[in-house]
Amino acid sequence: VTTGLKGKRYEQLATMTARERRDVLLAETGVRCLAQLLEKKYAFNFHLNLVIALVPMADSQFPSIREQACASFESVFKSDKSCACSYEIVQQISSYVKQKQHRVQPFIIRTLLVMPLEVTMEQGEAARKKAKSDRKKRRRQQADGDSIAAGLKEAEAVVDRAEREKTQADILHELVLIYFRILKQATYSQALPAVLEGLAKYSFLINLDIMIDLLKVLKVVLREEDVLPLPAALQAVLTGLRALQGPGGQELMIDDKEFVDILYRLLHRFAEGEAAADLTCFPTLLQCVEAVFLRRKEIVVERVASFVKRLLLVAQHLPPHQALAILSLLRALFHRYSKLQQLLESDVDRVASGEYRADIDDPDFANPFSSACWELALLTHHVHPKLASYALGTAQMAPTLPNEHARALMDAFDPYAGATFALKPKVPVPPSNPLHKKIASENNKNDRKKSRQRRARQFFVRDPLANLDEQYRKQNASSFFQKCLELDEQQTDDKLLVFKK
To answer: What ranges does the record give for the region Disordered, renumbered to this chain (predicted)?
Structure first.
């Protein structure tokens, strides 16, 4: 397999010779055999050899090879009850990432998200001690000759809970080690969004000391938010928010204002169209806003109002299905924070100090209550019928139905789902104006009058041989008419005529 792929890249597939293509196909077949063997028999003696061979394949440039290797790892993660083989896979991935100096693709890191971890680091320490005492107890029984109890324990064929929790704690330790290495030493890596996604998922399992280090590293990474790709920046914000809202983060008593301000600044990049290239950016944005304002109660209502104004600004530049998701999110905010209903009133009748500053990147000083949600009025005239009606319902404080949460609306009206590339539902034909018929009848009368005049002019003033071809005109026309044609074809001379005396 390695020999067939050596020195070859996926971009060169079109220019490869027939022999090189056969080598690639043979390598794909070999990877398929290794992957299926690992999926079916991950507990046999030589499974470690399969893992060592498949880990580099999970980082291959060829999608067909990479997908098969990653799928086999994910299958093992889901079906391995004892987590022993899963731990060996994570160890090999960790050593491979370190060997490649963290220059790996995000796919091999994203396979680790399938790991069903349930044990925190504190529980892992307790399970490690219990597993150690159980091993001593079994060793003592074997030394005392009590082989019956040991045999019965082995015949039960049940996974030892303490051993499983200990292995899961070791897996969590390896995962955190992989993530922190890339965060601290390789922020340039293209696997950074996948690393931050993994930290956001497993942040509730890590202990308090690692949580403090994680928040420090995230703040260092987010200092370069303008240079950082938008998916990585959003994942970093989401990771920080989930870490602070987890069981360990609540004990730290740290304000999440720094992450909220960064999220407020990142919204401008959505309006500039930067998120169109990556489809994962917008769902991450929805998760960030929900984590900040819906999963907990925000004390500073001005901050929520600033986000409402900026989200409406972003919705003007998004496709209809994403704008619907934002409006669903805003409905939930309007119902959760009753003071936000002032934004749905006219700003002329409201007493407020100062003016709304949309150019300020601090939501606490934008003064949003000096304005109103005029952007919502623009969305009521949108070409998409569902978006227009939903915007009108949002302005009227209509309740949100259970099937109208943000993600459900986005999936239901996605024009790119199923490769239809059509608005869902279709845009209806606007009703005809009564004046249109009158204008059309007047135009028909004028057209009939002009056609009669044109026919009369063609009948009375016309060339009798106009419908005949040029050769027929020259041969069958009269001599006088041919002489006239010759005079017409002669080129005019710019010189003045000179008359002889």
So the answer is: 125-145, 427-455
Domain containing residue 306: 291-430
For every residue of 245-259, which 3-state class applies, written as one string? HCHHHHHHCCCCHHH
The alpha helices in 144-256, defined as continuous H runs, are 147-155, 161-185, 192-202, 208-222, 230-245, 247-252
Q: 407 and 379: one domain? A: yes
Picking from 4, 24, 29, 1, the residue whose alpha carbon sits closest to that of residue 14 is 24
Number of domain units in the chain: 2
Evaluate if residue 330 carries a pLDDT over 90.
yes
Lowest mean pLDDT among 179-193, 262-276, 346-360, 421-435: 421-435
- Do the Cβ atoms of 340 and 333 come closer than 8 Å? yes
Does residue 346 sit in the same domain as residue 408?
yes
Other beta carbons within 10 angstroms of residue 89's beta carbon come to 29
pLDDT tier at 163, thresholds 50, 70, 90: confident
Question: What DSSP string describes 242-296?
Answer: HHHHSHHHHHHT---HHHHHHHHHHHHHHHTTGGGG-TTHHHHHHHHHIIIIISS
- pTM reported for the whole predicted model: 0.72
